[in-house]
User: What shape does this take?
Amino acid sequence: MNKKNGPYQICNRCIMDTTDPNIVFDENGNCNHCTDALERARTMWFPNAEGEMNLGAITREIKESQKNKEYDCIIGLSGGVDSSYLAYKVVELGLRPLVVHIDCGWNSEMAVKNVENIVRKLGLDLHTHVVDWQEMKDLQLAYFKASVANQDVPQDHAIFSALYSYAVKNNIKYVFNGGNFATECILPKAWGYNALDFKNLKAIHTKFGTRKLKKYPHVTFFKRYIYFSYIRRMEIVKPLNLIPYHKDMAIEIMEKELDWQYYGGKHHESRFTKFFQAYYLPHKFGYDKRRAHLSSLIVSKQMTREEALREMEIEIYPNNSHVEDMEYVAKKLGVSLEDFENIIVMPNKSYKDYDNNEGLFKLGFRIRNKFF
Assistant: This one.
């Protein structure tokens, strides 16, 4: 494959294009993203009899080894498609999950209602963890001032960290995760960065934050990959990779059986994330995450390339309607709209411009892949 440094080019197989600065194309005009995804599918995506058999084996192991505990697994529930359908499937498997919802301050009313309906309909125990708003607000404003692309890190890091902490607190070994190949197999590295790199998060907050993070849920590399994985023997289970997970089918089932409501876009259950993905990224960096989301659906054969291209023509914020959400975000972060706009137009930066543990993560993954 050769990197495309010249004119605009779009993949012939998916819809990833040269808005990703690192994209490369082969002689057939197919990009590295869908090529890599199709290769990874052979080892991590099993929407077939093999996946059903593997999921059955995992379920039986969990039921047997955790039969004397109040909960045999734990799941995080945002009210979005993936986590909601995960909860539905976990109950269908006959497991007894503790459900944890992490409130980072940006929940839409629809997301909250979805969570309430799911736990009520499925008869689940719910624990809601409310992240300290003053600290979250300070951290998120610091990220905007840092001018990096990955503005979802403050929330994502808190969500994962809190979920792992609740697993340890309740002596739960199995953490069920809604991450999946079918809808998330493509995401350019330049468009985001590892949300669990606390060194990077801390470096950004130290430079731009104004208060200490005393209550903010966080997890270091060693705590996540050494303490949780090898001392606590925590296991991350992604059942959506072991079943035929079709997004539209999942939505239809949940609307019918759980009174679940769709909110219009991937991760748009958070008003902040909607603004970040639909306005901030495209206008500041030229990254439209819909390309990655729709390309993932093309790879998993849930959508044709032509259908994805038509969807890309739809404007999420037509006629400057983003202003209302921008004002809302600015107000919640405690700055004026003018100051917020000035922060957003500051020169773009990369996560690499701040201290990070990328090298440590790469080394750890190489060791894991070689020996485990």
Summary: Residues 1-34 form one domain. The mean pLDDT is 93. Residues 92 and 283 are 42 Å apart (CA to CA). The beta strands are 2-3, 24-25, 73-76, 97-103, 125-130, 174-176, 235-237.
